[in-house]
Amino acid sequence: MSELESVARRILNCTLCDLCQGRTHAVPGEGPEQARIMLIGEGPGAQEDLQGRPFVGASGQFMMETLATVGLRRQDVFITNLVKCRPPGNRDPQPDEILMCGDTYLNLQIELIDPQIIVTLGRFSLGRFVPQASISRVHGQPQHVGGRLIYPLLHPAAALRRPEWRQAFQVDVQRLADFIKN
Ligand code: URA
User: Fold this and answer.
1) Which whole number is the average pLDDT over 66-79?
2) pLDDT the model gives residue 165
3) pTM above 0.90, yes or no
4) 126: exposed, middle or buried (C-beta count within 10 Å: 0-12, 13-18, 19+)?
5) Closest ligand 1 atom to 42 CA
6) What distance in angstroms lies between residue 55's CA and the mean position of ligand 1's atoms?
7) Which contiguous run of DSSP H or E holds residue 67?
8) pLDDT of residue 123
9) Cα(25)–Cα(9) distance, rounded to whole angstroms?
10) Calpha distance 100→81 (Å, rounded)
11) Ligand 1 centroid – CA 130 distance (Å)
12) Is any ligand 1 atom within 6 A of the Cβ of residue 29?
């Protein structure tokens, strides 16, 4: 078993915070261990909790369709979340949950995958890496933090809710593809 698989196994059995009490499945994330791009969302939603896989609901489908328009396929990227268990009723993940799950699992996943670009999805994910940044100001603009390259995207669920955010999401994904090419 690879180290990344052993992290996933620990996540599936994790009881470090109360989110474990309401979950059907923990969602460690998935994708190639050598992925150059790592996508980091907020936390599993209802579908993700049921299936144990990240971004398999409506917002995930929209995100993957948008990435496909620039030639990025699901099997090319590693997809995970800040917190690995569904917050009840899809509430926001709490700072202590993000800290515990992030310091215990996400940091390790990043270290093991060592991606060239981390794509953050939404303000909580951006906040983990660039705490002072405002997502409405910096989405679509690469950020250099502690030797890592962060590319902030709006959260796809937000993009699905508002046509102007949807368009911004699509523009940012195109810029991401251009950025990767150069
Ligand atoms: N939203 C997220 O942030 N993550 C998922 O896995 C699904 C929806």
Assistant:
1) 97
2) 98
3) yes
4) buried
5) 3
6) 5
7) helix 58-68
8) 98
9) 12
10) 13
11) 19
12) no
The pair of structure tokens assigned to 2 is 């690879």
pLDDT at residue 88 greater than cutoff 90:
yes
Distance 81 CA to ligand 1 centre (A): 7
The per-residue pLDDT of the chain, averaged, comes to 98
Q: Is residue 60 in contact with ligand 1, taking CB distance under 6 Å?
A: yes
To which residue do tokens 């709006």 refer? 154
Kindly give the pairing relationship between strand 148-153 and strand 117-121: parallel
**Whether residue 125 has pLDDT greater than 90:** yes
Return the H-helix or E-strand segment holding 167: helix 163-181
Structure tokens at 47: 């579908």
> Is residue 16 within 8 Å of 100, Cβ to Cβ?
yes
Three-state SS letters, 72-137:
CCHHHEEEEECCCCCCHHHCCCCHHHHHHHHHHHHHHHHHHHCCCEEEEECHHHHHHHCCCCCHHH
User: How high is the pLDDT of residue 182?
Assistant: 87
What is d(CA 143, CA 145) in angstroms, rounded to the nearest whole number?
A: 6
DSSP 30: B
Report how far ligand 1's centroid is from the alpha carbon of 86 (Å). 9
